Amino acid sequence: MDQEEDNKSISFTAGLNDSGSRVDVFLASRIPHKSRNYLQKLIDFKKVSVNGVIAYKKYRLAPGDFITLADLDMLEPASNVRPQDIKLRIRYEDDFLVIISKDPHITVHPAAGSYENTIANALLFYFKKNVKEFSDAARPGIVHRLDKDTSGLLIAAKNDSVQSRISELFKKREVSKIYRALVLGSFNEKEGRIILPLGRSRLDRKKITVSSDYGRESETAFKVLETFSNCTLLDVFPMTGRTHQIRVHLSYIGHPVIGDHAYGNTESLKIAKAIGLDRQFLHAYKLSFNHPVTGERIELEDDLAEDLKKSLEFLRTNKI
After folding, report:
1. pTM of the predicted model as reported, rounded to 2 decimal places
2. Which among 147, 149, 260, 307 is annotated as catalytic?
3. What is the pLDDT of residue 3?
4. Which spans in the chain are helix H?
5. CA-to-CA distance for 71 and 77, rounded, in angstroms?
6. What is the pLDDT of residue 75?
7. Residue range 78-171, CATH number
8. CATH, domain range 176-317
9. Domain range annotation of the chain
10. Sign of the Cα pseudo-torsion (191, 316, 268, 199, in order)
11. Coil, helix or strand for 290?
12. Which runs of E-coded beta strand occur in 23-150?
């Protein structure tokens, strides 16, 4: 097995012992300082080719295959992340963590090509820390995320130790989250539960889809709060924490979130325009968990963002 390298890419030639190996497993064994999950993401971004053809992660190698990985560090924004004085709305703070109310239209953490004006940049400034003081430099203190156009409560730790402890709470599903969502249509039931496996779409890698073949267990509960002529306000309880889970689950059962451009439809987007909403009506409304250091029970509620309040007021006083 030979290896070639330049400033932008790295290449390998598969040997006899590599026959039948998956390309993602092969790369993980040859590039030990990058995780297999990280390398799979590079494959998803079409940065890996075999014999000049874009590869998929389950591709099985044959002896003599020439594997090229371009832009090895494209998903590593750490060195580019800097503190920025961006206003944060603090809802809770102690010596160990902070909980903010995230505004809509702001990304939580940096991504390739976009290293500024994120919550991560704002937190570095607020904590008066350099990115190198966190082991996960792209997500300094951040243990969960909200989509760019979702508002509401977000937890951030002030050091690696607390970040690790809070991450464990999320993994064990010991953090209770409630979202407020305005969705298309009405419900016969007052509450319900959606249990459908979710995975990344093979047609559009930026989107999530329901899939029994490769999806992961996902569960969302909901409760009807208020009904309008053609939409319904819900409390939504994500029992698992998959990417886009609430949006995909509700869309799949025919009740897309109003204003959701990725998973909505013509009717849901039409309603959003009518009520003056330029993003999805989704707000992380409540968080409950035991403090990872003090053991204190933390329960926080966050009022709806102003644009969502105005949309509801419009619905309550106008027919659309």
Report:
1. 0.78
2. 147
3. 46
4. 23-30, 36-44, 119-127, 160-171, 245-252, 266-274, 306-317
5. 12
6. 59
7. 3.30.2350.10
8. 3.30.2350.10
9. 3-70, 78-171, 176-317
10. negative
11. strand
12. 48-50, 53-54, 66-70, 90-93, 97-102
